[in-house]
Amino acid sequence: MSTSVRQMYRPVSLHLAIAPPVSVVIPAMNEEANLPYVFKSLPDWIHEVVLVDGNSTDRTVEVARELRPDVKIIPQTGKGKGSALISGFEAATGEIIVCIDADGSADGEEILTFVSALVAGADFAKGSRFAEGGDTEDMTPIRKLGNAVLTALVNRKFGARYSDLCYGYNAFWKRCLEGMALDCNGFEVETLMNIRVAQARLKVQEIPSKEFKRIHGTSNLRAVRDGLRVLRVILREKRSRRLRMQGRPAETLAAAAAEPSRRAS
Ligand SMILES: Nc1nc2c(ncn2[C@@H]2O[C@H](COP(=O)(O)OP(=O)(O)OP(=O)(O)O)[C@@H](O)[C@H]2O)c(=O)[nH]1
Ligand SMILES: [Mg+2]
């Protein structure tokens, strides 16, 4: 192997070296106490960390800079985790994007497994707490039930085979963003990604993942409110898919996609 080719590859484990740069996108709203744990768990071979700040009123931004002077801090344009991720994806310069929460519930060491799946041929590496080897310490029984029902609905309506719909630990090639065309604000963002990935027939590899309890602070998720947002997005996507299959013009499809979600409730 010539020197120039060898330099293009970075060893990421004993058995794997990769060429594509990896961006880690972290949505964070008042997570100053959790960031030290999250940043510490990130592998040293990643290309960049993009932290999307949700107008934090604590020292989230300062702590991120202290921990990692090269961190890219991005303000989100809209409101909610979805708009934060969309801003972060736009700002990411890597060929591979990994999404990870800032509450200390995800282990950055798992990034190696996600990235390995992508370089081995997957388009989308989807974290799953319910695939064999995965686990969660963080979900209440009611959340587990809601997630299971919504997962089954998406599988049925979109021909997917997901085992965990509403999970924030995922990775994908940046080129997939065009097909996902994300347009949402809140916690429904992962559902929308999963549906669009299934509709685009991208190659999905589920990655068993262990979710821990958030270390400090309180959750921003409200089970009923956010469960309904997820349900609305599923129904909205189903309706626009039906219109597409009926061969309706593109303007009608765009209007259906932009339609207020109350029509679907
Ligand atoms: N930038 C930004 N980040 C957000 C926003 N809402 C939530 N987040 C972040 O998104 C991640 C997930 O939010 P959580 O509140 O932990 O929600 P969750 O993980 O679904 O719920 P729990 O399992 O109870 O922790 C965390 O890193 C939050 O800081 C937001 O509006 N803007
Ligand atoms: Mg959390």
UniProtKB/TrEMBL annotation:
Pfam families in the record, alphabetically? Glycos_transf_2 (PF00535)
Query: Which stretches does UniProt call biased (Low complexity)?
Result: 249-259
Q: Which residues form the Glycosyltransferase 2-like domain?
A: 23-163
Give the top-rank taxon of the lineage listed in the UniProt record for this protein.
Answer: Bacteria
Q: Which UniProt keywords apply?
A: Transferase
Region spans: Disordered: 245-265
* Molecular functions per Gene Ontology: transferase activity
| Keyword check for Ubl conjugation | no
What family does this belong to?
Answer: Belongs to the glycosyltransferase 2 family.
PANTHER family to which the protein is assigned, alphabetical = RFBJ PROTEIN, UNDECAPRENYL-PHOSPHATE 4-DEOXY-4-FORMAMIDO-L-ARABINOSE TRANSFERASE-RELATED
Q: What protein name does the entry list?
A: Glycosyltransferase family 2 protein
* Origin species: Streptomyces coryli
